[in-house]
Structure formats: C-alpha cells, structure tokens
Amino acid sequence: MFGLVDCNNFYVSCERVFQPRLEGRPVVVLSNNDGCIISRSAEAKALGLKMGEPYFQVKEQLQREQVQVFSSNYTLYGDMSRRVMHYLGATVPGVEIYSIDEAFLDLGGLEQHLTPYLGNLTDLAQRLRVGVKARTGIPVCVGVAPTKTLAKLANRLAKKDAGLDGVLYLDSAQRRTWALGQVPVGDVWGVGRQYAHKLTAAGIDSAADLSRVSEAWARKFLGGVVGARLVRELQGYPCSGLAPSEDGTLRRQSISCSRTFGRPLRERASVLGALSAFVARAAEKLRRQGDLAHVLTVFISKSRFGPDAGGHSRSAVLTLPVPTNDTRELTARAAQLLGRLWEPGAVYVKAGVVMAGLEAPGGQQLGLFGEAAPLAAGAAVEGRSAQMMAALDGLNARFGRGTVQLAAALGPKGGGPVPWKGQAAWRTPAYTTRLEDLMVVK
Question: What does pLDDT average to in each consecutive run of 10 residues of the chain (442 residues)?
C-alpha cells in the first residue's frame, strides 16, 4: 500500500506561514527573474490565473484584482520542504521524496498493526495531515492506494473534493472504480499531452477507460512496457516500489543549473560569465555527491517575446576525455561549447549547463590509451585538483556562497550589477536559514 503526500500550493503556503494575513487572499509566486506564475492560491485560481502565464501579460489583472505577488524564494521553500519530509520520514517506515512538495509513503503491512487500536490507514493519513500542518504550517492532502499511480490519482481527488477532508483511501474495488471515473485521462500520472490527445482520439476519455484496455493495446499504442505498467497500476497491480530519495540517499543521474538572465544579453562575455556561475554551482553539487561528470551540455535560449523574439534554444554536448568535477576544467569546456553555439548579434535570455554520465572517483572509464605512466601523472594532478576544490568548497561553506569563485563568473570590472543576475522584486526573507532574517517578536 502506498500513500502520496502533496503540499497544497506549496510556494504560496510557505509565504503564508510567515504572513498569516495572506490567508483567504489571492496570492501568486513568480518564477526566477519574476518571469511567470508558478504557484497560485485557491483564490488566485478562482480569478482565472493560469500556471505559466508570463507576468507582464497578467500584470494589470493582478493589480486590478489586488493579487499579492511574490518572487520565488527557493532557499525558504527548500528548508520548509526539508521539515515536511523529515516529519514524514520519522512517522512512516519508508519515504520517497518525489519532488520539493510531494512524497510517496510506504504503508505496506501497516494496517494490520494499526487496527484496532489506532484506526485504519485513513486515520493514519489524517494524523499525518494534521501533524504536518501543526509542525510546519503547510497544508497537505494525502492519497492512499495499492499502487503509486492510484495514490497520485487519489491525492488529486482529495485536493479537489472538500468533502473528503484532504484524504482519500482507495481501499476497495468499488471505490477505485469510482475514483477512476472521476479523472480525465490527460490527468493520469504518466500520460503526457501528446498521449492524452491520442487516447482521446481513440475514445479513451477517463482513467477508467484507460484501465480497461488490454496489455497488448497498451504496449502497442502507449509506449511499450511503460504503457503496460501504467495500465496495470491503474488496475491495482503495483509495478514499482519506492525509489531512493533526494534526502542524501539518492545519487542523481545528472546535475543541472540554469537561469533566466536579469536582462537580455548580447555580449558573449556576459553570457560566458553566467555560464561560469552556473558551472560553479553545478560542480559544487557534483562534488557534494562525490561524483565526476563525463558529459557536459551547454544550452542558450532566445526570448519568445519582444522584437528580438527567436523562441528557441540551441545546445551543444561534449564527452569529456577524462571525467572531472573540477570547476576550472568544466568552465573551460563550457566556454568551448559556447563558442560553437554563439551567433553574433543574437540576444539571449537564458542559459544553462547539464552534467551527466556521472561516475564515482576511482571507478571511471579510462581512455583508450590510458597507460600506466600518464595515469600516474594524472593521479597526481587529480589529487591537487581535489585539494583545491575541497578548499574552495570549504571557504564558500564557511564564509558564504560565492566568497571564492573564478574570475570568469564575476561581474564587470569596477563593480556594478552583474548583468545576468535575475530580478526578484518581491522576494521575502530567508526566515529559517539566515540569522539576520529571523522574525522579531515585539
């Protein structure tokens, strides 16, 4: 049996924890650089505001409707998420942190121990809901079902139907049949937009319709074995268990860092500066995980709006001859890739790096001609690199991120604002992670 705990309007809820006056008022949170809406309160949804809508397109409506607007504050959201996940992890046998605001729970075999003293899984889910709210101030809903796909579906219904009091337990075939009939096929976890169109065209409109197709049909028209597993999960047969979580037990398969610039950039040096900063951030995460990257990808994007609209991204990929987590080496390679992508005169609004092909130190693939002598010399260099990166990380951890960084990632000579730094006009303080931002009670 699985549970899915999903925080309601998570980013908005985090803001409301420290500003209770926002309860009952329309609130939205904007993405990096105050670009578009990424979180809405129920009141904002009722006004017709959509996820992903660019801020400049709805600015007048937000002002007219007196909607409270916030810039995203990921430091705060990440810490609040950690508190929610910590409580869940201390309460149930197993947790898979699926995203910053969602977690799957392993509830297998619990019911027989709960009954008759502590009720059933519905009672447990309610206790979790109340417990998270009491400890963090974050409202959540809980779906419980025999499979992860059904748990997602149950959670969705628990959010939409106020009569369910935030919890739905699909504990019988009748209840599962009812739930499947309530959800459009496009809202089933794992069904993307393209497959939703295909399924609707084939007369499959709801999750119930999809659960009745044959395994052979699913294999043929729904992505092979992935589609077959999806249908089996809807039928109540679990095809996947909990995966390792990002709470320190998960080794990520790739690490990325990307941002929208504070203003459109035409200068190659400015874009390279942004990429250098992104490489430094991603390499720091790479070293924290204890891995080396074998594949580096760089992408740059033009704006979809305005007179210079191009609306597309270009990317370049490089397989490194020797895996590394050295910020200097990765920055140099990123500069090479940028040279392949750069179009003189073009205007760019976003860039990013992705590090993949992650390998543990000592276990990396050797080059074809990696004989003993070069390897020994390389080992010495690798040792010095590791020491330098360890010193870099140590200084930044002690004195603050960005205390020591490559010159390429610094701003223009003589000071002044860094051109790629994003805008955050309405960002709230980091209430829980920075001493100077602690709330003061008078």
Answer: 95 96 95 89 94 92 95 92 93 89 90 71 93 96 96 96 93 93 93 90 93 92 90 93 62 82 87 92 90 93 69 87 91 95 88 89 62 44 81 88 82 68 85 87 83
- Quick one: 221 and 289 in the same domain? no
Which ranges of 22-109 would DSSP assign to H, the alpha helix? Answer: 42-46, 55-64, 74-91
Q: Position of tokens 């599962």? A: 176
Half-sphere exposure for 188 (CA within 13 Å, toward CB): 33
The verdict on pTM exceeding 0.85 is: no
Between the two ends of the chain, the Cα-to-Cα distance in Å is: 48
Render 106-119 in DSSP notation, one character per residue: E-TTHHHHHTTTT-
C-alpha–C-alpha distance, residues 436 and 439, integer Å: 9
Residues 210 and 277 in one domain: no
Helical (H) or strand (E) element with 265: strand 255-265
CATH number at residue 226: 1.10.150
Residues near 91 by Cβ (< 8 Å), separated by ≥ 6? 128, 131
Compute the distance between CA of residue 244 and CA of residue 103 in angstroms, rounded to an integer: 11
Task: Please name the helix (run of DSSP H) or strand (run of DSSP E) that holds residue 399, with its range, or none.
Answer: helix 372-399
Q: Is 369 exposed, middle or buried (0-12, 13-18, 19+ CB in 10 A)?
A: exposed
CB contact at 8 A, 367 and 320? no
Short-list 341, 384, 351, 382, CA closest to 277: 351
Q: Are 252 and 350 in contact (CB under 8 A)?
A: no
pLDDT at residue number 374 = 40
Q: Do the Cβ atoms of 264 and 349 come closer than 8 Å? A: yes
Helix (H) or strand (E) holding 282: helix 268-289
Q: Please report whether residue 246 resides in a domain.
A: no
Residues 229 and 284 grouped into a single domain: no
Q: Which residue has tokens 């794992």?
A: 190
CA distances from 68 to 21, 22, 44, 90, 411 (A): 11, 8, 9, 35, 32
Taken in order 264, 269, 273, 275, is the CA torsion positive or negative?
positive
DSSP secondary structure, 125-161, as one string: HHHHHHHHHHHH---EEEEEESSHHHHHHHHHHHHH-
59 domain residue, yes or no: yes
**Do residues 137 and 97 touch, judged by C-beta distance below 8 A?**
no
Q: Environment class of residue 385 by beta-carbon count within 10 Å: exposed (0-12), middle (13-18) or buried (19+)?
A: middle
Question: Is residue 63 domain-resident?
Answer: yes
